[in-house]
Amino acid sequence: MTATVVLGLAWGDEGKGRVCDALATDADYVSRYSGGNNAGHTIRVGEEEFVVHLIPSGIVREGVICTVGNGVVVNPEVLAEEISSLEGRGISVRDRLKIDGRAHLIMPYHIRLDSHREKALGKAKIGTTNRGIGPTYEDKVARVGIRVQDIFDEGILRTKLKAALREKNAIFTNVYDEEPYDPDELADGLLRHGELLEPMVADTGTMLRDALERGEKVLLEGAQATLLDNDFGTYPFVTSSNPSVGGVCVGAGIPPRELDQIIGVTKAYTTRVGDGPFPTELSNEIGDTIREAGHEYGSTTGRPRRCGWLDLVAVKWTARLNGITHLALTLLDVLSAVEEINVCVGYEIDGQRVDVYPMHQTDLHHAKPVYKTLPGWGVDITGCRMRGDLPEAAQDFVGFVEAEIGAPLCMISVGPERDQAIIERIGA
Ligand code: GDP
Ligand code: IMO
Ligand code: MG
């Protein structure tokens, strides 16, 4: 019985995909539990790069079964494209992928609403990925969502779509002066995906619980990250699901007592794509240097990522919130490009020194970082495979972060390639 969770400790893109890929060598199942194709998880295998949005990263490892849990929102078009693109690259997908019948479907009207809402917010926009994520989760909670299983009951599908569109079509026609959606046309579109999906639809929670009972290894792949969590993140600049550890149980159907390793992933610095507070953001040349050295452009939308120093106030808080058992520190090599490294160890909020991550949104907006400066190392570290191979300054940086966060490191990544990593204590 081993369930291991991999989740992000900041605002996403921490390298969860590559950490999962490393752990998947030893996994029987890799499962997504939240979010949808707002995620973009990159895995580099030699010269080949795979970016998966909906299908778990484990798909790149032969023999691993991948599940898309009930807590995920599924755009069937994107799913079909992702399957065909991976299969076109020689990866077997349909025999190893299972999609939960309880997962909700992202419909074209969700995407359109997402974009209207953002426009209406103007300068206060969230900066969503415009994939329809928020409106789909809203419908789930409002009990007017369409689920994967509805595709297999045409009568129910048509009835539910009519009900779902009653209010929405009024919004499209009256508020946005647009054509209404025809529920039957949408139903026909969904029914066309039935043949592809049918063999893959499963009760994935039961599958995973059975697997755990048999002593098999299950890896839960987080998407988005804790500071984007709808409850704990920088609300309202968040996503609409719970990427933090609690989301695993409801989104994958696994009881809490089964979770025995929780790996929190953080970059050696911080990035954020989308709007919202970011106390350690560097709107200067150092930020640009980090962006270029780390190729910090969104894997889903291509947007330049905002870059800043590692914020230990935030990460210590998210590490504790998730009860992490291990830490994975990624993109350490990117800091070879800077002379000195700052790490945020406190905030100054309205003249007061604060060491605890604030609950109040206004405090976070006013927070000015208090930094500890550490020397850089300025040399290529991409060839290091043991902690002892790292230059002393890099070892000091890593040791400092590990001690501050208070969880043992299981992995340090020093380059995007699969083997460019220092692996410690995985499975311990
Ligand atoms: P995820 O969403 O958390 O899976 O992360 P993304 O894939 O969106 O973003 C991480 C980016 O960093 C990708 O482009 C990876 O190829 C790259 N990457 C991951 N680990 C490393 C590393 O150790 N060094 C460098 N330079 N790039 C890395
Ligand atoms: P991975 O899994 C980074 C951000 C968006 C926006 C906010 C809400 O690759 O780490 P949404 O479309 O979810 O309603 O957007 O969340 N966001 C991400 N940022 N990585 C992601 O996923 C993200 N998924 C959503 O940029 O700020
Ligand atoms: Mg990403």
What does this structure look like?
This protein is of the alpha/beta class and 428 residues long. The protein has 2 domains: 3-95 and 203-423, Adenylosuccinate Synthetase, Chain A, domain 3, CATH 3.90.170.10; 104-198, Orthogonal Bundle (Adenylosuccinate Synthetase, subunit A, domain 2). The chain is built from 13 helices and 20 strands. The model has no long low-confidence stretch (mean pLDDT 97). Magnesium ion is lined by residues 12-13, 39-41, 299.
Classify the beta-strand content into a percent band: 15-25%
Radius of gyration: 22 Å
Label the structural class. Answer: alpha/beta
Helix content estimate: 25-40%
Number of strands: 20
The low-confidence parts are none
Record the strand order, biggest sheet: 9-7-5-2-10-1-11-15-19-20
Major beta sheet, specifics?
10 strands, mixed
